[in-house]
Model the fold of this input.
Amino acid sequence: MTRIIDGKQQANRLREVIGQETLGLQERHGIRPGLAVVMVGNDPASQVYVRNKARQAGEAGIASFEHRLEANVSQQALLALIATLNADPAVHGILVQLPLPASLSEAAVIQAIAPDKDVDGFHPINIGNLATGARAMVPCTPLGCLMLLRQQLGELAGKRALVLGRSNIVGKPMANLLLRDSCTVTVAHSRTHGLAEECRRADILVAAVGRPGLVTGDWIKPGATIIDVGINRIEEQGRSRLAGDVDFTSASQVAGAITPVPGGVGPMTIACLLLNTLQATCHQHRLPFAEDIPQRALPTHRKPTRSVTS
Ligand SMILES: Nc1nc(=O)c2c([nH]1)NC[C@@H]1CN(c3ccc(C(=O)N[C@@H](CCC(=O)O)C(=O)O)cc3)C=[N+]21
Done:
């Protein structure tokens, strides 16, 4: 039977445990984690995420500070705001909503964020630490995907994983995380030859290309675990709805387990943002961070089986 991986429920559990931890931090040390979200311009889709983030942060005991800037803001003014947030002791995490207007340099903005406060894990220091296996702030979407995979499969070592997409935000960090968990990792993308055959070899498939319905059931190895990162707004029969990169109807006939869109990876992304903010807070106050929060919140669904064939 195909299992539908309920990311919304997992994210609820994770946020609940994060809330318990922030309460402890508050009671024992009088510290309240703070997250600053910077949004440039007013992309309506981004506004929804920003609102959801702020509400869920509050529910988990995290203060959130929103900064909305006009789309025509100068790079200098944006960098000045980041410098202020870097120096603000009430702010432990900084997220600059991407993409930025074309007039601004995303690279310069990301590099201006203090690596300790970079809860998106996009700063080159964090990317380098992740790639070398050192302690790092890990990008929220791939971290959420990894948690869903561990919860579903228990042990990932030795599995053949295919990451579809090579973005800095999802594909590349996802490949590094899977490698860290001893998967055999392939990164495929729009220029890959024989894409369908590559996909069919994978025990784990993470789709993050932004092409609605690209991956169909005939691309999937029977029993494989499918993580659909795509959140594509499509018009169908005069209506707007969200669609993943995976064709859910055909894929769910073949897969062993699959994430839906919405209700899969998206809610986990926000929960991981809150987790990173808690981690950043502990780190900045030289307090221990409970590394086992994900395992506590999301105990493994399937007992790891010892197998020589997979
Ligand atoms: N610096 C930065 N970091 C980000 O993490 C970042 C960003 N910029 N820019 C925009 C994207 C997009 N993103 C989403 C997070 C959660 C949902 C989410 O919770 N989606 C719900 C449904 C939402 C709905 O119904 O519209 C779901 O999939 O179930 C979606 C999208 C984070 N992003």
